[in-house]
Amino acid sequence: METRLFIHGDFFDAAGGARFADIEPATEREIARVASASAADIDRAVVAAREAFDRGPWPRMTAEARGKILGRFADGIERRARELGTLEARDVGKPLSECINHDVARAARNIRFFAAAAETWTQEAAQSDAKFLGRDLRLMNVTTRPPIGVGVIIIPWNSPIMLATWNLGPCLAAGNTCVMKPSELAPLSSIALGAIANEAGVPPGVLNIVPGLGEAGAALVANPQVDAIAFTGGIATGRRVMAAAAESLKRVTLELGGKSPNLVFADADLRLAAAGVARSIYRSQGQSCVAGSRLLVDERIAEDLIAALKREIAKLKVGDPLADGTEYGPLISAAHRERVHRFVAEAVASGAKLIAGGEARKSPAVGFYYAPTILDHVDSKSKAAHEEIFGPVLTIERFASEADAIEQANATRYGLAAYLWSTNIDRALRVAEQIKTGMVWVNSFFLRDLRTPFGGAKLSGLGRQGGRYALEFWTEPKLICLAYGAEDHDG
Ligand code: NDP
């Protein structure tokens, strides 16, 4: 397993030899000591990316030529699906089958999709008339889309390989070079991408990977040689990133947290809704930006739905992420489990009713497990009601009418996603239009078409990823205006 920094196509120890411990959530044991990038390492990585952009072949290749290399990169990810999936399962605590069949499969698809998207992206041209120095002219205004330069990609720990490639895909396909920093809590699958990029023929310096602590991220975003930053993480860090980027006016896109509602109407297919709500909050143990952490339910069906949710929890196969059939693993760290529990304990102390969970799991005995939790009657002033918990905690609110449901759904600072469960298409579309989130799913959870915009409104983020939205972010629209005579004066 590689644990060093990847700079200019080679693996290095950090300057000064600093390393941090990487703990496996299911065993609570150290699985690796990972090189921790210092400010000097960050500078070196940015210089490598700068040099590769300013003088290297990558930005000067056609999208087709880059696409061939990225295709081999995606093949390499697929060939190592089991190895990468196992690294991810051990590092993050997600079930192995989900890591292999979803996250790693999506990682390869992310790279392939954006290579194809860049290759099939056509540029715009506009024609107009003008007069210049007494001559009648026609203008052919061509908008080209050169890459923006050196990109910084900062990702969190909850879905590292998926989020790394979701950002690397458009960044590299558009012709940029980059420095990527994974989270110190789950850096292994990101580091493994370095060797795969080398085998695929990605030129040295195009992709640099610098595991490190938060300070490494801060040094990266402050570096004046960086042109654009794609940050995925929490709101507080997102604010710091944006403030640092303002200094040298770097382009920034932020994918932040959520407090996404599940709205279940009385006309919903109750079994589908219960299974969907459970999946939306307990998949990845709730450590997902799009987790459906708030249940808003028509008061007439609330008790039936709660009973169905309890049955869904009872069915969940909790256990070792590496074991066959496991659906629910541990949280990322002891500190995170404590944080999740503080939300629950505070809500219960201020009157919430615990319907399920609310404590560390007794079995398995080792690992940062926390039981799937449901809280009812949560005081609207308690933190559990309005802050992102990023854990397996579902809060319940009841509504009496459609208007009431919409008002409650929108009564949050976040605006990432919403899930509507209804068999009435008129209602579903009417409500979807009025929910202030970047994404709304009707009778489903988080199904993705990679061409569509991904991102949040309000405090959930800035900008959109996915399809052409990501390619637009990673390119600099440039006008080339060609003037030519409107009439033939030469006979
Ligand atoms: P953090 O914001 O704590 O960290 C995200 C990344 O930023 C990490 O790599 C971290 O490094 C790095 N970092 C920390 N401080 C700085 C700094 N000052 N400047 C630059 N980078 C810095 O988030 P978490 O890792 O705890 O991830 C959870 C959050 O991510 C949740 O809020 C979740 O909702 C959000 N998220 C959003 C998604 C979306 O697409 N909208 C998708 C997935 C998650 P280190 O960890 O080493 O400190």
Outline the structure in words:
The strands form 6 sheets. This protein has a 7-stranded mixed sheet, with helices on both faces. The chain has a 6-stranded mixed sheet with strand order 9-8-7-10-11-21, sandwiched between helices. It has a 3-stranded antiparallel sheet with strand order 5-6-22, with no helix packed on it. It is α/β, with parallel strands linked by helices and 491 residues long. Helix 6 (188-200) links the parallel strand 8 and strand 9 (207-209). The longest helix has 24 residues, at 96-119. The chain has 2 domains: 5-256 and 460-478, Aldehyde Dehydrogenase, Chain A, domain 1 (3-Layer(aba) Sandwich), CATH 3.40.605.10; 261-442, Aldehyde Dehydrogenase, Chain A, domain 2 (3-Layer(aba) Sandwich), CATH 3.40.309.10. The mean pLDDT is 97. It is globular. It has helices at 39-54, 63-79, 81-92, 96-119, 160-173, 188-200, 214-222, 235-247, 270-282, 302-315, 334-349, 383-386, 402-410, 425-434, 467-473, and strands spanning 5-7, 10-12, 19-24, 29-35, 124-132, 135-144, 150-154, 177-181, 207-209, 228-232, 251-255, 261-264, 294-298, 353-356, 373-376, 393-399, 414-415, 417-421, 439-442, 457-458, 461-462, 478-485. It is 39% helix and 22% strand. Residues 154-158, 181, 183-185, 213-214, 217-218, 221, 232-234, 237, 240-241, 255-258, 289, 388, 390, 416, 456, 461 line the site of NADPH dihydro-nicotinamide-adenine-dinucleotide phosphate. NADPH dihydro-nicotinamide-adenine-dinucleotide phosphate binds next to helix 7 and helix 8.
